[in-house]
Specification:
alpha/beta; Nucleotidyltransferase, domain 5; globular; binds adenosine-5'-triphosphate
Length: 350
């Protein structure tokens, strides 16, 4: 089975081909491939980089309009090169249906529909946040992990129960990456700010900032205001970056630990672009180690927005017969993970 995946929820347009000789394995509990990183042809365009400020939806959509045809064409050429000549070059087209920026999602949806219709193959509408979780589950071989999604626009804990991925805890305001990006914009750094916070924190001394966890939820806006105030008051920016990392990531680790404890699960996977941060991974690994849980963080290219995770989940959905009719394939900028009926896991799992 060979699936084309198309991703473009915000700023990174990419296309990937997921291929497996053993589609039945996709229906197994874990469905782990022997070498999961090797069975992707992975094509990624340069991400959109705003000249100043944050992501502008119109400019981002313009970038998608230019980049998506190019990455899709390249991915299909790779698929064609691996094709034996019978039937269509791919067996299905998976696309990010949401959540994300509406103007970007619409371009991705249009591209996916047109390729699927041209090749006469099924369309697979993938929830981007569930794909972040599933790529970690697939690559780790974990059975039923809790997932911490720490991305630009989101921050939440997901756990599987009764046929759906339930949101166990989430941000009450901004996404975690967007919060870091807002601070770095304030100090005059270009987007994306997260990697710059990580670099600057290496030379910083911890500064105390507000720590806001309420039950299973967290809030970042007060911390960002306090961080901006510190910068305006002349506190060295590397010190604030060190304080930001320790505070924000400790909040994420606390709620992740509580999610493991409440669900009785001993497997944690990480998803989302902020997961590329070594300090966050270190804190989560330490927390898991202390409670005897296993921790898995995918390779950075599968943490940030990427079409590989879309194609891989699309393959599982196709194996489960979970296809999407073109006339019902509108995108959904607010597509929540718990809206997705998880068709591709064993029926006996709770
Ligand atoms: P979503 O997946 O919720 O739609 P998105 O498309 O904005 O969000 P991702 O590609 O998952 O996001 O992540 C991008 C975010 O990751 C940006 O906010 C960026 O600053 C942050 N980020 C990237 N690298 C690092 C790092 N090393 N440390 C901290 N944050 C990082």
């Amino acid at each position: 089975m060979r699936i084309l995946g198309i991703e473009g929820t915000a700023w990174a347009a990419s296309a990937a081909v997921f291929e497996t000789d053993d589609p039945d394995a996709l229906r197994s509990e874990t469905g782990r491939a022997p070498d999961p990183a090797a069975d992707h042809v992975f094509i990624e365009s340069d991400p959109y980089q705003p000249d100043s400020g944050g992501i502008h939806p119109r400019e981002s959509a313009e970038h998608m309009g230019n980049a998506i045809p190019e990455v899709v064409e390249t991915a299909l050429a790779h698929a064609a090169a691996r094709h034996d000549g019978d039937g269509p070059v791919v067996d299905g087209v998976a696309f990010s249906r949401g959540p994300g920026l509406g103007p970007c999602l619409r371009i991705v949806g249009t591209a996916a529909r047109s390729v699927a219709q041209t090749l006469d193959v099924p369309l697979l509408g993938v929830n981007h946040m569930v794909a972040h979780l599933e790529i970690g589950r697939y690559q780790s071989g974990f059975d039923s992990p809790v997932c911490l999604n720490a991305s630009g626009a989101n921050a939440h804990l997901l756990g599987y129960h009764n046929g759906r991925y339930r949101v166990l805890g989430e941000t009450m305001d901004t996404g975690v990456g967007n919060a870091l990006d807002k601070f770095t914009r304030h100090v005059g750094w270009t987007h994306p700010g997260g990697p710059k916070v990580e670099k600057a924190a290496e030379d910083g001394d911890y500064v105390e900032l507000p720590y806001v966890v309420k039950g299973m939820d967290f809030s970042f806006s007060g911390i960002m205001s306090a961080a901006k105030d510190e910068a305006d008051a002349g506190t060295p920016v590397p010190d604030i970056c060190a304080g930001l990392q320790e505070t924000v990531f400790a909040m994420l680790a606390e709620v992740a630990e509580r999610a493991l404890s409440l669900t009785g699960t001993d497997e944690l996977v990480l998803g989302g672009g902020v997961g590329q941060n070594a300090r966050l991974r270190e804190m989560l690994a330490e927390m898991c180690d202390q409670r005897g849980a296993e921790f898995y963080a995918p390779d950075p290219r599968f943490l940030r927005d990427n079409a590989g995770m879309i194609a891989a989940l699309g393959a599982r959905m196709l194996a489960a017969g979970d296809t999407l009719a073109v006339e019902e394939s509108t995108v959904d900028p607010n597509f929540r993970p718990d809206q997705v009926a998880v068709t591709w896991r064993g029926a006996d799992e709770s």
